[in-house]
Design a protein that fits this description.
CATH class of the largest domain: Mainly Alpha
Strand content: 5-15%
Number of helices: 10
Structural class: mainly alpha
CATH superfamily of the largest domain: Winged helix-like DNA-binding domain superfamily/Winged helix DNA-binding domain
Number of domains: 2
Radius of gyration: 23 Å
Order of helices and strands: HEHHHEEHHHHHH
Distance between the termini: 61 Å
Shape: elongated
Helix content: 40-55%
Strand order of the largest sheet: 1-3-2
Length: 231
């Protein structure tokens, strides 16, 4: 039982969803969680953790050898969870890790000297293109960029995945994230507009009366909870 007043460490949503399925090494997971704890404890804008902090951490050092900790952090960096840079001002270049978001990557770059080599960053702040994860999965996009999926939204997502090209779906999500309009209603409106008016100068897709009738029945059912008489 946790004592009263226990503090909590925030964890990025993708790490509790799609990214979790890509972590097979328990040592890697331990290092990720402990590094997130260190990051959360940092004060100020530069929330950066050095490899030395991790290898001398009393919890990790009691479980893993320094080379195991380094290997685990390298694996997490390749997945796009952390950004990594090398601090050249020390006798031996010191690896530094930050959460792989645009803001934290920028802080990491400012911390490094101009002479320090900066290793390529894998992934991006929205984690839409993280290597090794299922890309053509609308549930992955939603959980990563919007949040938890309710049963009603799940039905709409499955319908959209059948109705629209995957490239449209991915672009609509990126637009919503870029405009900070992270909700399915906005994304759905983009897809619906492209379908009716055409995308990038394309011709609008024609709908039959039967399609319009089915759409009306579905919308009415959603609003009223019942289907109108089909006389």
């Amino acid at each position: 039982m946790f004592p009263s007043g226990t503090s909590f460490t925030p964890i990025p949503n993708p790490l509790l969803g799609p990214l979790l399925t890509s972590i097979e090494d328990i040592n890697e997971l331990k290092c990720i969680l402990r590094c997130l704890w260190h990051i959360h404890k940092k004060k100020g804008p530069a929330r950066i953790v050095s490899l030395t902090e991790l290898t001398t951490d009393p919890v990790l050092s009691s479980l893993l050898a320094p080379n195991e900790i380094q290997s685990a952090m390298e694996a997490a960096t390749r997945k796009g969870i952390f950004a990594k840079g090398l601090l050249a001002s020390t006798r031996q270049p010191e690896p530094l890790f930050a959460l792989n978001t645009a803001k934290d990557r920028q802080s990491l770059e400012k911390t490094l000297s101009k002479e320090a080599p900066f290793e390529p960053i894998i992934g991006n702040d929205s984690l839409l293109d993280t290597p090794g994860l299922p890309q053509k999965n609308i549930f992955f996009l939603y959980e990563t960029n919007i949040g938890m999926i309710s049963p009603l939204v799940a039905e709409d997502l499955m319908e959209a995945e059948k109705q629209y090209p995957w490239q449209w779906i991915q672009e609509a999500f990126k637009i919503s994230v870029g405009l900070n309009k992270r909700n399915w209603r906005y994304i759905s409106s983009i897809l619906d507009r492209w379908s009716k008016e055409g995308k990038n100068g394309g011709k609008p897709r024609r709908h039959s009366k039967e399609d319009d009738r089915k759409r009306f029945i579905k919308e009415y059912n959603t609003r009223r909870g019942q289907i109108p008489s089909q006389q």
